[in-house]
Description:
Elements lengths: L2 H19 L2 H7 L19 H20 L4 H28 L19
Helix pairs in contact: 1-4, 3-4
Amino acid sequence: MEQDTVCSALSTxxxxxxxxxxxxxLQHDYGLDPTSGAVTSLENLRNINDxxxxxxxxxxxxxxxxCTSQDADEKMGLDRTVRDLVFTVLSRLAALRMAExxxxxxxxxxxxSQAEGFQI
Length: 120
């Protein structure tokens, strides 16, 4: 295996493990507990804004799809949702790095917060 491929695989594993060990955002913002599989009703989440509420709806629709299509319970569905989220984020970061390397974008991720295109 090429070194970049190995590093990418390790990064994916680390990110997935982090999401599994630190599900705070899923629990706090979206009422989804990947550890127990508990799903809080959106009506009971009073601490979120409209954008977070819309994201919560999408996450619940995705969870319902995974549970229905695989005859899985909520815990298994949330596990797949977390795994898919991690892979999606890492794939997008890889696409950014590739576009930077090809000169299609100014450096926005490659040099961290010191990159020319980095903004908060």
